[in-house]
Structures are given as structure tokens and as C-alpha cells.
Please model this.
Amino acid sequence: MFTMGIDIGSSSSKVVILEDGFNIIAGEVIQIGTGSTGPKRVLDEALSKSSLKLQDMARIIATGYGRSSVDEAHKQISEISCQAKGVFFLVPSAKVIIDIGGQDVKAIKLDSKGCVKQFFMNDKCAAGTGRFLDVMSRVLEVNLNEMAEYDSRATEPATVSSTCTVFAESEVISQLSNGVAKENIIAGVHQSVASKACGLAYRCGVEEDIVMCGGVAKDEGVVRAISKELKKPVIVAPNPQITAALGAAIFAFEEVMGTNK
Amino acid sequence: MSRIETIISELSSISNNPRKAMEDYKKETGKGAVGVMPYYAPEEIIHAAGLLPVGIWGGQKSISKARAYLPPFACSIMQSVMEMQLEGVYDNLEAILFPVPCDTLKCLSQKWKGTSPVIVFTHPQNRKLEAANKFLAEEYRLVREKLERILDVKISDEALHKSIDIYNENRKVMREFTDIAAAYPQIIDPIKRHAIIKARSFMEKSKHTAMVKELNSELKSLPVEDFTGKRVVLTGIMAEPNEVLEILKENGFAVVADDLAQESRQFRNDVPLGTDPLYRLAKWWQEFDGCSLATDAKKSRGPMLIDTVKASKADAVVVCMMKFCDPEEFDYPIYYRQLEEAGIKSLFIEIDLETTSFEQTKTRVQSFSEML
Model:
């Protein structure tokens, strides 16, 4: 039996097709999100790669910021519940999840069964989100996937504000014009993201294992900065961008089987 | 339309249009209105003068002119009040009563840009001393004198006692209403509940009491039906705009009690008995607890919330955090921990009167509903 989870975020679209509730048949990501062609394209890509049709899906659940705009879905579940479900499936020892996506930062506390005990989200502010890193990457003329490498060469991380993306951008511009090395600025940018996410994690209560997911988890510089701030190891979920879609597909499977808690 | 629907519709329309409520009062009595700034003020003095006390609670609007006078981190309720005073919205008020229990109100009281006279008074924060009652009674004496001068009326002790009785009756009926409404969430949804309570900020209280009394009696005559959704207690300054309450409703939540400054905190305590009406009003402030704006060394808000959750058989607490309200932000970690220790789940949502996008609130509320 096949089930599908569709996660439409603000800056990317993800689909997971699951067989019998545990075997990931497809896990596709397209780096454009709600309101774009991304949702349709990622759906087509997942179906094409798995050689399946929409009609083969026993149930489809949508999640993410654009969850209510997915016509194919039978139901919508919030991304917080789906992240918890997906991450716990992959890392059953997870107690705290730090999820940094395009425009949201979330800290989610789990109980021993993987159910959400508490969660905190960022305010309506791009600071500390994937969008913040996008802006910095453009200003610094460094690709997002190269930022971790730059960070690893930093000797003295610069101070970058975590209050506001616009202020932080002008801080970075003035540091560039003062000749501060990009490596040190990028390390500062990563610390800024970490301080925002850790603020939410502290509210939840930090307990190991700490697992990171969301697109920003692919940036090792941010993971290192979070681990340093929390003084604890941080596990990156396998394929961290698709964990919410995976959770949605698991929910769909559980609903079909009548085992949904 | 049933009598219940008619009463709710009338109260909702007053709640949504305070200006019309003021105009109607003027037509009916020939007397005007006095504005009352948040959060707590001796409205009874205005009532005893025969004028209509009208709550000034801001409104949902975008902010531009107020930016010239307030920093961006002033709370959103004061941002909208500033914007509207600059637009002359409050200029037909005879006067404005201005308590200053937080820094933003203190500063705003000194830069009022409207044309109505402003009467500023101070609540003592060392509240549990007898000297606090004496101080506040003296403040209220000055408020009475200023109102008498501005309005050219005499406010007698007898009229004040009578107004206190009318207000206490309204408080009692409102407490009954919130209890009864909790049993009928299918009829009194979060939006209607809020409108019925908010209408009391713009109505002569005996009129409001009569309508709510009738509503209570009509509701009680109906059978209580099973409610399959979740029951929550709201805490904070206010739960506006209505979109926030709509989201709660859409996700199957019923508001079974509240600890909001705009709602139950206004009527959960009566003004105590006594011989001097101003001292009675002052004593109310001493007996009032569980609000971030009233210094409380014992930090009783958490235990009070826990008691409310138990009494109303609620499933959880929803924290309606007014954006940039530092007294509320300071209180939060204390009662959050107390709720956690008591095993009571809570959800934090941000209240911002300027916002037009509610996606984050939707995600938070839906997640909370899935979590409970």
C-alpha cells in the first residue's frame, strides 16, 4: 500500500511516497514553494520516479505553510505534528527537534512515544530563518552550499544581529566594507541563526537527543553553531528537508490502517 | 430569529461600532461620552456623572502616522490608539480617563494629540499597604474634581454608591454569563463570547446587564449538548482581532473561561462595601490580583489560572501575548512554568492589531489542537 505526504513550504516543495508505512519509495524536493509551480512539479517528479499514479495512493496528507492549497490531499496536518512524526520515525531517540525552514524556526519537544509535548515558533520575523541565510548569501556572494566550508575556516567570528534581517544585512555590508573576512562574517551569520533557534529550544527545555531538520539543517555551519550554543551534540535527520513530508505520509498510512494516535 | 440570536446580534453590533453606541446614547440622554484608556479605571465616577464611559481598546488598522510619535516596539494596542487619536477619532469625547500602569501608557499620557481633555491618574504599585488605598482614593478624588470641572456637573457620594451598585450587578451577571457560556459552546462560540463581553465597554451598564441577564436565562433553558472539541482558557491583554478567534473556532476550540484584561479581569472582583465610595473604588485595586499590570509579589497569576482551568474543566490555556507588552512578557515564564508543573498544556500566540496575515497563528493553533 502506498501513501503520500506533501509538504508545501514557503520556499520549497517536498513529496514523500511511502510503501506500507516504512519503505520510502520517493522523496523529492523542489526549491520553490507555495504559490509557484513547485507543488505540481514535485508531485509529478515523485510519481514519475516511482512509476506510480496518484490513484495508487491509498491516502494523501498535505502539510506545511501551503497545506490548504493542495487539492490532491485528503487531509491537512500541521507541519509541527508532521515533523515530529517524521523525525521520530528516523531518529527514535529524538527528544527535541530544531526545524529551520524558509520562513519559520520551530523547537519541538517530544515525549518518549514521539508525540508533541510542547512547541515554540519564531515571531513574524525572517531573522534566524532560511530566508535570512538567502539574503546573507546574496550579499556575501557565496553560494548557500559553500557557507559551511567558509565557516570552517573562520578565525574570529564577527558579530551579526539576530534581531532583524534588514539590520543584519546592513551590518554585514558594513563589515565587508571594513575588510572583515567573509569566513568570519559567515561564522557570525551562523551564530546569529543559532541564537534565534536556541532561544526557542531553551523555552522548550533542552534534552538529548537533539535533532535538526528543515532545509537549513543541510548547512553544517549552522549545525555546528547550534551544537556549540547548546553545548550538546546535534543529530541531523537523514535527508532533513523531507522529514515533514515523511511524517505526513506516515500519518496517511496510520489513518488507512486505523492506528492513528 | 430567536431571542438569543437577537440579543447576540445587538450586542455584537454595539461591540463592532462603538461610535454608533455613543451617538445613540447622546440621542437618548442628551449627554456625551468619556473615554477610558486601558486597563483599569473607576468608570463608576463617569457613570455617576451621567455620561457614557467608553473603553478605548484600539482597533485593527495599519500604522503610519503613529510612527512619528512611538517607537516600533510600543505595544500594538497603543500604536493603534495613537494612530486613531491622530486621525481625530477620539475628539468628540468630553474627556479621557488615563490610567498609567505601564511605561507605554505613562509616556503616551504625556503626548496625547487629540483635542479632548485628558485626566491622568496613577495606580499605586505597592498595593497591599493601607497607604495604597488612601493614595488611590485621593487620586480618584482629583479625578472626580477634574471631571466635575470639565463636564460642569456635580458628582455626589450617593450617585457614586448607586453607580458602584450598578457596576457590581453587571460584574455578577458577567461572571454568570461566562460560566453559562462555557456549557453552550455550540451557541456561544469564541467570537460571540468576545462580542458580548466587549459590548459592556460601550454601553450604559444597567442596559448591558439587562440584556446579558436575559441571555443567561434563555441559554439556561436550553439542554446542554455534548461538545467534542477542546475547551480552553485565554490569558493575556486581549484576544483580538476576530480572525484569531475564528481560527480557534475553526480548529474546534471553545473558550470556557478567560483571564484577559479586556474581559474577565474587568469583572472578576466586585467593588467592596464601605462608606466612602472613592475608598471603595480604591480598595478594588488592592484586592485585584493575577494581572501583569498590578504588582503581585506572590505571583498568583499561575495558581489562579490553574484554578480556572480546573473549575472550567478546560483542556489547556491559550496565551494571547500582546506584541511588545513587556509586563505580560515578564509574567509569561513564571506562569508557564507553573502550568507545566501542574501538567497543563499551553499555547503561545502573538496578538498584533496591525497584522493581516494569520498563517503562523493557524499553524500554531492547528498544531496545538493535534497535540491535545
